Amino acid sequence: xxxxxxxxxxxxxxxxxxxxxxxxxxxxxxxxxxxxxxxxxxxxxxxxxxxxxxxxxxxxxxxxxxxxxxxxxxxxxxxxxxxxxxxxxxxxxxxxxxxxxxxxxxxxxxxxxxxxxxxxxxxxxxxxxxxxxxxxxxxxxxxxxxxxxxxxxxxxxxxxxxxxxxxxxxxxxxxxxxxxxxxxxxxxxxxxxxxxxxxxx
Length: 201
Known about the structure:
There is one protein chain. The chain is an all-alpha fold. The chain has one domain (21-198). The protein has nine helices and no strands. The protein is globular and about 55 Å long.
């Protein structure tokens, strides 16, 4: 198989995976509040969710959104409600390990992070864009798998970068007041990161 065609897919994946979005905002907050090691299940859950969703869309699930456009509206509403809940959890999560207050929340689990990808409108839009722009209709399974794996690997590197950035940020937020301000800021940015997708026409 000629692998040159995977180059543009990698570039697309880098642009879409590393830019701020719900997953990256949550990873930044998790890396800051819980450290890198405790964020690993969250990172792996996102990676697994991206892979499973894109494979499902590539195998024909995307046609459902064409046949039932109202389904996407339901997903957007469900995603907004869940993001508001996550934003609340981040805003009230307390201080990182070692601070004066004990954290009042736990990092997202592998299965929680995987399940979130199913209702993540940004990921669905990005995935459909990737599949329609870089793969033929009804692509051969091996070609679909190769393209999705490139997206998945780049996406995993993005989770490492954002969680790692959170660890760096933690070094500058040793005071309880500073971490509370940071958590509230992350909560607001988490919701704001989805506003263009949630309320698009």
